Amino acid sequence: MDASQYKDYVLFMLFIKYISDKYADSDDFAPPVVIPKGASFADMVALKGKSDIGDKINTQIIQPLIDANARLARSDFPDFNDPNKLGEGSAMVERLSNLVSIFQKPELDFSENRAEHDDILGDAYEFLMRHFAQDSGKSKGQFYTPSEVSRVIAKVIGISPENTKAATTAYDPTCGSGSLLLKVAAEAGNKITLEGQEKDVTTAGLARMNMILHDFPTANILSGNTLAAPKFKDGEGLRTYDYVVANPPFSDKTWSTGLTPEDDLYQRFGWGVPPAKQGDYAYLLHIVRSMKANGKAACILPHGVLFRGNAEAVIRQQLVRSGILKGIIGLPANLFYGTGIPACILVLDKENAAARKGVFMIDAAKGYIKDGNKNRLREQDIHKIVDTFTRQIDSPRYARMVPFTEIADAKNDFNLNLPRYIDSSEPEDLQDIDAHLNGGIPERDIDAFAADWQQMPGLRAALFESAGRPGYARLKLPVGEIKAAILGHGEFIAFTDKVNALFGKWCEAITPRLTGFGQNDHPKALIGTVSETLLAAFQASPLLDPYDVYQHLMDYWAETMQDDAYLIAADGWVAKPARIVETDKKGKQKDKGWACDLIPKPYLVARYFASEQATLDARQAELEAIAGQIAELEEEHRGEDAVFAGFDKINAAHVKERVKEIGNDPEAKDELAVLKQWLKLSEKESKLKKAVKELDAQLDQLAHDHYAKLSVAEIKTLVVDDKWLARLAVDLQGELDRVGQTLTARIRELAERYATPLPQLVDEVGALSARVEEHLKSMGAAWN
C-alpha cells in the first residue's frame, strides 16, 4: 500500500492497543474513552485466522467504539474489509492476522506506561505521522506540521503554564492531525481547552485519535470546510479564542468554494477580499476574526503574502496599520511536506495593538540541517528564534524591529519582504588591488577578526607587522608556522583555559541534578534543566556561539543520553549486562555475546581494567605489525617468476609443502629463505592471535563479572562523569579547535593571496618566457 493508505491501518492499531491497555480494565468511573465489552484489542486478537476477520473488526470492534464514544466517527477509521486494499479471501485473513500479531508483542504493553508524563505514546504517534507524511508523496503531506515548526509557534505566541487555566482556549481552523494544537497544549502545561476544524474527514479522525493518545480526549475536533462552513460559533458569529494557531494549505486555489466573500456572514473580509486563486489571506482574516480582544495567534503562510500586490497588498496595508501584526519569522525552504517553497510565520497580537510602533522581523532562513530530502530546524535554531523573538532584540543580519514609518514610506510601500529590512547575506570577500600590486595583507581583512583580537591582542602583534605603508601588514613568520603559533600562544591557551573553566564550573553545578535523577523521574524535565543551564553558562563564553554548544548537548541527548535517562527512569541506577541472542530465519538461536546499554563495556574497562586493556592493545599492535610484515613479504615476492607466483592461496600448508619440494636444492636457496621467513612470521602471528584471543576473553569476563560489584555511586560516576560529561567535553574541545582552525585558515588564505605582488609575477613570467625561448632556439625552432 501507499504510505498515505497504510498509515490509517497502522495508526488505528496503535490507537486501539493503547486505549485497550489503558482503559479496558480501568476502575475510573468515567474513563476518557469507553471500551465496550467485546470491542477491545484482546477481542481483535481472538479474530486472528478467521475467514471474516475484516468484517468482524468493522462490526464488532470499530462500530461499538463509535457508538460508545460520541467524539469518534466512522470516517475516523479505515475499512478493514476492503478487498481492493487488503486482498481477498485468505490473503486478507493472513495480512490482517499478521498486523494484529505485530501489535500483540509483549513490549507493546501500555497498561503501565512508566513514563506517561513524557508522552511516549504520543511521541511515537507523531513520529509515525511525520514519516508517513514524508513517504506519502507531494500531495499527501498536508496532515502534518513538522514538530519543530509547531514548537516555535507554540512558544512565540507567549503561552505558558503561568498564564493559562482550564478555561483558556486554543483553536486551529485547519488542524490536520492536531500536532500544532498539541504543541500549544504542551507549552501551556496541558491546562487548556482545545478546538479544531479539519476539512479532510480521515485526517480529522487522525486528529481525534492523536488527542486521545496525548491524554486530551476532551479536545473538540470537527470536520468541515472552515471558510465556507465554520463549525465553532457563538450564536451567529464566530467563536473567539485566547490563542489561534494554523498551518493552512498554501495558496489554496479553491478557498472561496461555497462562499460569497462580499456577503460573508461572519464579516471576515472587511480589509478586502483575497484573490480568487490565492487563499492565504482568507485564512489569515478568519484567524484575525477568531481572536479575542486580547488574543494571540500565529499562522504559517508562504513568503508571497509578504510582497504580492493588488488585493493582497491592500489587505497587508490594513494588517500593518491595525497594529495586530506583531512579528514575522522567515523560515528555511523545504521544511514542509508537500511543498519545497519557503514559508514564514506571522505572529499576531491584538493586545496593545494600538500602541505598537513596528513589526519585529526575523530572517531564520539559514538555520537548518539537511534531513533526507527535507530540511529540518535544529534545536539551536528553534531556541535562537524563540529567544530573539521573545526579547525583541536586534541582531545583525538576523533580526530587527522595523518601525511602521519605514514600512509605510514611499520606498517600501507596505511591502514586508524580509530582505528589504534585513540583509542576511554574507559579507563579500573583496580583493585588494593595491595589495595585489604592491604586496602586504589589507588590515581591513585582519580587522574582520575583531572579536578574536579583543580576546587575544598580543596574538595579533605576534603574527603581523607593518608592511611599510599605512593600511597593510605582513606576516612575521612562514605560512606553515601559523597554526602552531596560534595554538601555542599564551593568549590562545588562556582563552581555552577560560572556556574549559566555564565548562568545569557548569559540570560541578549540574552534577547533583544529573546524579539526583532517579526512578520515576521525567527525562524531559531533566534535559530541560540541563540544556537551559548550559546555554545560560556559555552566554559568558568568549568567541563561542552558546547555541552551538547547546546543539552538541541536544544532539547527544537524541543520540544516547535520552535512552539512558529513560532506562534510569524505568529501572533506577541499575547496570546489568544482558546476553545478545540472534535468531535466524529457521529459528536457530546464536549467542552474540553480551552488552549493557547504560554502561557499555568500554567505559567500565577504561575505569577498572585499564592495565589489562593496555596489555591487550600492545599484543594487538604486535599482531598488526606482524600481519603487515607478512603482507609486505607476499607483495614483494608475488610477481611473475617470484616466490609466491605459483600459489593459488598462500597459507602454512602450501608453504610447508613447497619447502619440502625444494629440499636441499642449492639453486633454490633464495626462495627457501623467503619461505622460511614467511613460516617464521606466520608462526609468530598464530601465537599472537591466540594470545590476543585469550586476553580478550579474560578481559571480557572480568568486565562482565564486575557489573555485579558496582555500587550505585560507582554507576552514577561511570554514567555521569565518564559517559555524559566526558562526551560533552570532547564536543567542546571540537568547538575550541574550530576557533583556532578558522583563524588559521583565513590568515593562511590572505597570506597566500597577496604573497606575490603583480610586478614580481610579471618578472617571473618574463624570466620563464625567456628560458622557454632559449630552449626553443636550441631545438632549432624559429619564427618571425
TrEMBL record:
<keyword id="KW-0949">S-adenosyl-L-methionine</keyword>
<keyword id="KW-0808">Transferase</keyword>
<dbReference type="InterPro" id="IPR029063">
    <property type="entry name" value="SAM-dependent_MTases_sf"/>
</dbReference>
<dbReference type="InterPro" id="IPR038333">
    <property type="entry name" value="T1MK-like_N_sf"/>
</dbReference>
<keyword id="KW-0680">Restriction system</keyword>
<dbReference type="GO" id="GO:0009007">
    <property type="term" value="F:site-specific DNA-methyltransferase (adenine-specific) activity"/>
</dbReference>
<feature type="domain" description="N6 adenine-specific DNA methyltransferase N-terminal">
    <location>
        <begin position="1"/>
        <end position="103"/>
    </location>
</feature>
<dbReference type="GO" id="GO:0032259">
    <property type="term" value="P:methylation"/>
</dbReference>
<dbReference type="InterPro" id="IPR003356">
    <property type="entry name" value="DNA_methylase_A-5"/>
</dbReference>
<dbReference type="GO" id="GO:0008170">
    <property type="term" value="F:N-methyltransferase activity"/>
</dbReference>
<dbReference type="Pfam" id="PF12161">
    <property type="entry name" value="HsdM_N"/>
</dbReference>
<comment type="similarity">
    <text>Belongs to the N(4)/N(6)-methyltransferase family.</text>
</comment>
<protein>
    <recommendedName>
        <fullName>site-specific DNA-methyltransferase (adenine-specific)</fullName>
        <ecNumber>2.1.1.72</ecNumber>
    </recommendedName>
</protein>
<dbReference type="GO" id="GO:0003677">
    <property type="term" value="F:DNA binding"/>
</dbReference>
<dbReference type="Pfam" id="PF02384">
    <property type="entry name" value="N6_Mtase"/>
</dbReference>
<dbReference type="InterPro" id="IPR002052">
    <property type="entry name" value="DNA_methylase_N6_adenine_CS"/>
</dbReference>
<dbReference type="InterPro" id="IPR051537">
    <property type="entry name" value="DNA_Adenine_Mtase"/>
</dbReference>
<keyword id="KW-0489">Methyltransferase</keyword>
<dbReference type="InterPro" id="IPR022749">
    <property type="entry name" value="D12N6_MeTrfase_N"/>
</dbReference>
<dbReference type="GO" id="GO:0009307">
    <property type="term" value="P:DNA restriction-modification system"/>
</dbReference>
<feature type="domain" description="DNA methylase adenine-specific">
    <location>
        <begin position="117"/>
        <end position="428"/>
    </location>
</feature>
